[in-house]
Amino acid sequence: MTPATLFRCEGRIGSNTFPHFETENNNQADIFIRLDRFFETGTTLRGQIDAGARRYTELSSSGTTTLYGARIRIAQSLGGRWGVSIE
Fold first, then answer.
1. Which pLDDT does position 9 carry in this prediction?
2. Mean pLDDT over each residue of the chain, to the nearest integer
3. Which of 21, 41, 52, 59 has CB atoms 3.0–4.6 Å from 67's, for a disulfide?
4. Among 2, 9, 19, 3, which Cα is nearest to 47's?
């Protein structure tokens, strides 16, 4: 395997509507930024930062929830189809 670095950023904007549970209706937006580093030994190191917000449309201004996260994953290839990882 050739050493390589992969950068990825993805965002999403959506809306969820529930006909029988109106209080759960919401609009949401989220994004993540991810950086993967692949090594010759078959090891992969991944760092990721997440952020998002959800607004419940049936509630007052207090109906907004924000989420933030950070993750690190280390993975090791054990062959062509197998590997192990820890996050």
1. 96
2. 90
3. 52
4. 9
